[in-house]
């Protein structure tokens, strides 16, 4: 199996704005965020669909998503944190965690062809990191 872009990030072959890591999961900021703090919670094992994870890994990914959502709500001082499972672009299971204040923000459509704003991403990662 070819390594996904997320496996390359997990192997440290590609940089990321890391938020959290343990033996099973890596969480980092999405390079094309819908909102400030938009992060991806990714199991280290490369399985295409979240729904195909073994129960133990799935439950751990969900527990980390819960922990990071509550952490983002407090740290970024926002009332809401949404979650999405899409998986159309990257064939490696992940959950999008999206902090927001107004529902219109949650429906932002980022320009996927834009150059990532690494300055803004690292400032957000510094606030959110749980490493
Ligand atoms: P999905 O597969 O859920 O449809 O979308 C994949 C998400 O991964 C997109 O929101 C996209 O911006 C993000 N993404 C794709 N490549 C990279 C990357 O190299 N680094 C990071 N941090 N995010 C990425």
Overview of the molecule:
The chain is an alpha+beta fold and 131 residues long. It has one domain: 2-Layer Sandwich (HIT family, subunit A). It has 4 helices and 5 strands. It has helices spanning 5-10, 55-75, 103-106, 118-128; strands at 18-21, 25-29, 39-43, 80-84, 95-100. It has a 5-stranded antiparallel beta sheet. β1 and β2 form a beta hairpin. 31% of the residues are buried. Guanosine-5'-monophosphate (5GP) is lined by residues 5, 14, 16, 28-32, 40, 86-90.
Characteristic terms for this protein:
five-stranded antiparallel beta sheet; globular; 4 helices; HIT family, subunit A; 32% helix; binds guanosine-5'-monophosphate; alpha+beta; single chain; 131 residues; 19% strand
Topology summary:
Blueprint: H1 5-10, E1 18-21, E2 25-29, E3 39-43, H2 55-75, E4 80-84, E5 95-100, H3 103-106, H4 118-128
Bound molecules: guanosine-5'-monophosphate.
The site of guanosine-5'-monophosphate has 14 residues, from strand 2.
Q: Summarize this, please?
A:
Helices cover 32% and strands 19% of the residues. The chain is an alpha+beta fold and 131 residues long. Strands 1-2-3-5-4 form a 5-stranded antiparallel β-sheet.
